[in-house]
Amino acid sequence: MNALKIKKGDTVVVISGKDRGKQGKVVRTEAENAKIVVEGVNMATMHKKPRKQGDQGGIVKTELPIYACKVMAVCPKCKEPTRVAMKVDDKGEKTRVCRHCGAAL
Length: 105
Hints:
By secondary structure, the protein is mostly beta strands. Helix content is 0%, strand content 44%. It has strands at 11-14, 23-30, 35-38, 43-48, 58-63, 66-67, 71-74, 81-82, 84-88, 94-98. The strands form 3 sheets. Strands 6-3-2-1-7-8 form a 6-stranded antiparallel beta sheet, with no helix packed on it. A hairpin with a 6-residue loop joins strand 7 (71-74) and strand 8.
């Protein structure tokens, strides 16, 4: 199992691909595939068919997963894209910190 340093709810910026430069919140992570779903990034058009009587069919826009290596976490304190560092405190607990300013992510 791959351990992702990006977690659900993090703000990230896309660093490569067609959506380069876009920012968004992580909606879902898929650790087994090393992919994440980011709000408003990698949008695809789906044609939805009504399944039951009364259902609405039509064309729907949805977010598709992208590889986690194509995004960087944005530090809430310094507002810069940063790599995530792991820091072990005196109690032995790991926390994710910003490489620039050292703030907890």
